[in-house]
Each structure stands twice: as structure tokens, then as C-alpha cells.
UniProtKB/TrEMBL annotation:
Keywords: Cell membrane, Membrane, Transmembrane, Transmembrane helix. It is found in: Cell membrane. InterPro entries: CstA, CstA_N. This is Carbon starvation protein. It comes from the Bacteria. It holds the Pfam family CstA. Residues 3-362, 378-524 form the CstA N-terminal domain. Signal peptide: none annotated. GO terms for biological process: cellular response to starvation. It comes from Halobacillus dabanensis.
Length: 578
């Protein structure tokens, strides 16, 4: 079967979902009001609350929620076969992710741009809010640590991409100044910036002197550096420090100075990247060599598929972005459909092409099976296989393989860095919120909260594990990411459902995906906590077991409280809407 057919079917499903289903949700369920004064106007401060053009905001929203997750998850999940992965991406995007991202955005806009954690207090009570914030805090900490891990390792593996990524920063600052101080247009400058970035990537692919290869700088593979670290570990350490200094600055700057223009550039990277891959698919017409379903898999896809592919189908982190940064920049409420739902469609398209790149990369089914011989092997190989497979598709347009791999890595790093910036900013908000909750005044200060966020993220990322030293600790809590992320999405959908019920509206479009998601996620998490990580089993892990058990208890507590609110027994105030 040709990979083109997957792209055609997927594109049709996404088009119909946005054209018809999102319109139904906007008009009949969320009832968007063009005359409603959004928080971006009501609380305009030039830092976080900034009315923003919908195309620019879509770029910020999409690139903040995308990152590397809609690539990594699908690239791993094809282990169970391409059909389950494709179905979950398509149906999950249309009926779950779009409704979730769109809904959390509208709910926040209707309530002063407040985060989903704060809204939990209004909808289901103060105790539930604190428990919810704990789950959110753990989730963003994992996002920070793992995305920093991904970026640092891509810099090490593809040193030709570093120059292009760092050139983007001053270009974005220049665009931000030009647009917001001189009232210029962002489209042309961002296209020029993208051209400069790709030119730098192409030149660096051929000129070793422009490749910032820290491993080579520290003596090459096997060399020993300071404190007995090998060259790779030392390079990883330096990149993490550089990244953390960068995200500290980026997450405290006004959004118009770096966040918005850089994300707008990255939104064009999405268009260019997807264009290259889908056009490459059309010209190469590769055959799918991966199995439709993998009957010999060592783990069952049911229910693990639904936590392996989070971003690209539905992700709780998206609700944090929608209610944390996007809602504070929405210019007109009617644009929430374009930004929220279409942002999910963009991520679904990225997840779909990631699947296609992987399942068409291998010449034979036997080679796919050899690489994806087990779930652990699939987890280790996924991202690398995608970059090679995407490079193979792009080479169908005449782009040399080394250049194609560099450009793909630039795109992945750019998306991951955007998510890292937004995640650290969100973590700062949460820490400040907890500081206000428990009257710890220093934590409410921007730079104190940001310092706590950055230091804790760096500490988790740099925890040494095993003989390799730095570079593996970032994954210590990663097995919890999928379940925590999906639990957060389920709880967010539940909050939107409670809000809709109190408005006297039909909440079936939000409650049905919520029930499905919570059932699958709780099932998967119970299996992991009690049959994989528990101390009485082989392969036990005290850290994962402890955190997992706490999250499970908190989740059931929140669900019981929310069930009471949904049945009308909880009457905490929430803003009414027309």
C-alpha cells in the first residue's frame, strides 16, 4: 500500500472535522460572541496580556503545543502497527483534541484569562484545585526536563543544526521590535528570517567549521574531560546550562519581544516542513512496509496506545497552553475556533506525517521488525527513525540527505524549544499561584518563581544514571508523562463539561471523549503502577511507583469532587456567558 493513501484519507478527515464539526462546536456548544471583550483587551499590560493577530497567535499556540511529542509518540506507537496509530491520530484530533484545546481556551477567555488550575477551584472546589496544580506542576516539570534532553541530544547528533537555531533568536527579537514598536507587518520579515535560517542550515551541512560540535571540542568520543566525564556527557551538560539560561530569559521577557515572533517563524516552519514531507511523499510514492497490526508485540496496544500518542491525538499540556498563554492574547473570541481547533489539526497533520515517514522508511517488513523488535526498542529508536525517514521523503525533492536531515532536526529543535519556553513560563505561573495559595510571598515574584522552575528542571535533566553520566536522568519520570498528560486532558474536559452544564448547554461533545480518555488512562496507569513499578514486582521502581500512586490517589479524589459538581451539588461561582 502506498503511503500517499494515508495522507489523502487523513487530509480529508481533518478538513471535514474543521469545516463542519468545529463549526458546530463553535456555534451550538461554546457559542462564541464577537462582541465579548477578551482578557487581552480588558487586562492589556504589554507583557502577558497582548491582543494578537489570529495568524500570529495560531503560530504561537501551535508551536507551543507541538514540540517533539507529536513526532516521538507516533514514531513509537507504530510498533503495534500503523492502523491503530493512524485511527487514534485522526479520530482523536477531530473529536477529542480539537474540542479540548478549543474548550479550555474559551473557558479561560470567559474567566479573565485564568489558568485551568485556577478554574478548577471555581468549578470543583479549593482542595481539588491544589491537587490539580500538583499534577500540572509535575507534568510541566517532566516536559521541561525531557524537551531539554531532546534538544541537547539533537544538538550533539546534528551539530550543523545549532547555528540555524541560534540565528533565529536575534531575528525573532528584531521582528518583535519592528512589529510592535514600528507597527510593521510580521509576515515578510518572518519569511526572510526562515530563509536565513535554512540558508545557515545548508551552509553548515557542508562547512564543518560552522558546525558547533561540542563533543569534538571536548576531545571527541571516548575522551575524558572535567570531573571524569566523557566528552558526550560534558557536551550534554554545557547544552543544558545554555538552554536553561536561554529559557530563563525567554520566559520572563514580554511575549511580543521573543515568544510571538519566534513562534510565528516556527509556524512557517510547520508549513515548509509539512510541505517538504508531503510533496516528497508525492514524488517518492513510498510503500508502507510496516505491518497493519503487530500480532507479535510484547505488549498490548489496548490501552497503552492512548497514552503513547498524546500530542497528535489529545494532550493535557495543550489545555495549559490554551488557558495559560493563548487566552491572554486572543483578540476576538470568534478567533478561538481558528486558534484552538485548527491548532490541533495542525498537530494531527504533523503526527500523521511522522507515522508515514516511519512506516515507509524501511525497505522491507523484516527490517522494520528488526528495529521495532520490542516496545523498549521502539521507544529508543522512534525519534531517530523519524528524522531519517523524513530526510528520505525530503530527498525525493532533490535535497541531499545530509541537508534534509539537518533541516528536519532544525524543525524538531525549534518546536521543542518553543514548547520548553512556554512550559517554563507556565511553570512560573503555577509556582506563583501556589505561592499565593500558601502565602509564600517570594514565590509570587517573577524571577524567584522562574529560578525555581529553571533550577528544578535542570536538576531533573542532569541527574546522572548509570555509567554514562549526564544525559539519562531526564527520562527518570518520563514513563509517567503519557498517563499524567492524559489524566490532565480528561480532567480539563470534565471542567469544560461542568461549565457547559451550568450554562444549560449540551455537554455531550466534551463528556464523551472525557469518559473514554479517563477510562483508558486510568486502566493504563493502574497496570503500570501496580504490575510494573510496584516494589513487589520484578523491574520495580520506587520513584515511579511513589509518584504514580500519589497521582492516582489525587486523580480519584478530583474525579469524585468533580462528579459532585457535575450533578449540581457544588455551586462555586463561575462567570456566566450569554
Amino acid at each position: 500500500m502506498s503511503g500517499i493513501w494515508l495522507a489523502v484519507v487523513g487530509g480529508l478527515v481533518f478538513f471535514l472535522g474543521y469545516r463542519y464539526y468545529s463549526k458546530f462546536i463553535a456555534e451550538k456548544i461554546y457559542r462564541l460572541d464577537p462582541n465579548y471583550v477578551t482578557p487581552a483587551h480588558k487586562y492589556k499590560d504589554g507583557v502577558d496580556f497582548v491582543p494578537t493577530n489570529k495568524f500570529v497567535l495560531w503560530g504561537h499556540h501551535f508551536t507551543s503545543v507541538a514540540g517533539a511529542a507529536p513526532i516521538v509518540g507516533p514514531a513509537i506507537a507504530v510498533y503495534w502497527g500503523w492502523l491503530p496509530a493512524v485511527l487514534w491520530v485522526l479520530l482523536g484530533t477531530v473529536f477529542a483534541a480539537g474540542v479540548h484545546d478549543f474548550g479550555t481556551l474559551v473557558l479561560s477567555v470567559r474567566n479573565k484569562g485564568q489558568s485551568i488550575g485556577t478554574l478548577a477551584s471555581k468549578l470543583i472546589g479549593q482542595k481539588a484545585k491544589v491537587l490539580f496544580l500538583f499534577i500540572i506542576l509535575l507534568l510541566v516539570l517532566m516536559v521541561n526536563a525531557v524537551f531539554a534532553w531532546v534538544i541537547a541530544n539533537l544538538f550533539i547528533s546534528f551539530p550543523a543544526s545549532v547555528l540555524s537555531v541560534f540565528i533565529q533568536i536575534p531575528l525573532a527579537v528584531w521582528i518583535g521590535y519592528s512589529v510592535y514598536k514600528k507597527q510593521g507587518n510580521m509576515l515578510l520579515p518572518s519569511i526572510v528570517a526562515l530563509a536565513v535560517m535554512y540558508l545557515a542550515a545548508i551552509v553548515a551541512s557542508y562547512v564543518p567549521a560552522l558546525q558547533i560540535d561540542l563533543v569534538r571540542y571536548f576531545g571527541g568520543e571516548g575522551a575524558t574531560t572535567l570531573f571524569g566525564l566523557n566528552a558526550t556527557s560534558m557536551a550534554f551538560f554545557v547544552w543544558i546550562v545554555v538552554l536553561m539560561v536561554y529559557v530563563y530569559i525567554a520566559s520572563t521577557l514580554p511575549v511580543w519581544k521573543l515568544l510571538q515572533p519566534r513562534d510565528y517563524i516556527n509556524s512557517h516552519q510547520l508549513i515548509v516542513g509539512l510541505g517538504l514531507l508531503y510533496l516528497g511523499l508525492l514524488f517518492t510514492n513510498p510503500e508502507i512496509t510496516a505491518p497493519v497490526t503487530n500480532a507479535s508485540a510484547d505488549t498490548s496496544w489496548f490501552p497503552l496506545l492512548f497514552i503513547t500518542i498524546a500530542c497528535g491525538a489529545i494532550s493535557g499540556f495543550h489545555g495549559l497552553v490554551s488557558s495559560g498563554t493563548t487566552s491572554k492574547q486572543l483578540n476576538n473570541e470568534t478567533e478561538a475556533r481558528f486558534v484552538g481547533y485548527l491548532g490541533s489539526v495542525g498537530e494531527g497533520a504533523l503526527a500523521l506525517v511522522a507515522i508515514i515517514a516511519v512506516v515507509t522508511f524501511f525497505p522491507t517488513a523484516g527490517e522494520f521488525t528488526a528495529t521495532y523488535s520490542g516496545f523498549a526498542e521502539a521507544s529508543n529508536a522512534g525519534l531517530g527513525v523519524f528524522i531519517q525517514g523524513a530526510g528520505q521523503l525530503a530527498s525525493g525533492l532533490g535535497i541531499p540527505a545530509s541537508v534534509a536531515a539537518t533541516i528536519v532536526s532544525v524543525i524538531v529543535v525549534s518546536f521543542a524549544a518553543t514548547t520548553l519556553d512556554s512550559s517554563v513560563r507556565l511553570m512560573r505561573y503555577i509556582i506563583a499561584e501556589l505561592g499565593m495559595e500558601y502565602k509564600v510571598t517570594p514565590l509570587t515574584k517573577t524571577h524567584v518563581a522562574t529560578t525555581v522552575a529553571v533550577v528544578s528542571s535542570a536538576a531533573l535533566t542532569l541527574i546522572p544514571q548509570g555509567p554514562k553520566g549526564f544525559g539519562s536522568g531526564g527520562y527518570l519520570l518520563w514513563p509517567l508523562f503519557g498517563t499524567s498528560n492524559q489524566l490532565l486532558a480528561g480532567i480539563s474536559l470534565l471542567l469544560v463539561s461542568i461549565w457547559l452544564k451550568r450554562q444549560g448547554r449540551n455537554y455531550m461533545p466534551t463528556i464523551i471523549p472525557m469518559v473514554f480518555l479517563m477510562f483508558m488512562t486510568l486502566w493504563a496507569m493502574i497496570v503500570q503502577v501496580w504490575t510494573e513499578w510496584a516494589p513487589w514486582n520484578d523491574g520495580s521502581d520506587w520513584m515511579l511507583f511513589s509518584f504514580g500512586a500519589i497521582i492516582l490517589v489525587f486523580t480519584f479524589w478530583i474525579l469524585l469532587t468533580a462528579a459532585s459538581a457535575l450533578t449540581g451539588k457544588n455551586n462555586d461561582s463561575i462567570e456566566k456567558s450569554a
